[in-house]
Design a protein that fits this description.
- The chain has 53 residues and is an all-alpha fold.
- The chain has one domain.
- The protein is 62% helix and 0% strand.
- It contains four helices and no strands.
- The longest helix has 11 residues.
- The two termini are 20 Å apart.
Length: 53
């Protein structure tokens, strides 16, 4: 992942990326996205990559 994405992640989430703990990272992101404000931010950041719904 590039810095524009990772610099906004909480330290625990960034630490999951370093050792390649994909499933744990995905679970943490799914839990965070249950917050409407976080979901909006993720959609905004993902839009240029075609990852928003």
């Amino acid at each position: 992942m590039s810095e524009p994405w990772t610099k906004h992640l909480a330290r625990p989430a960034r630490e999951l990326l370093e050792p390649g703990q994909k499933e744990a990272f995905n679970a943490a992101m799914a839990e965070a996205a249950s917050n409407p404000a976080v979901a909006r931010t993720l959609a905004f950041r993902g839009k240029p990559y075609g990852t928003c719904d």
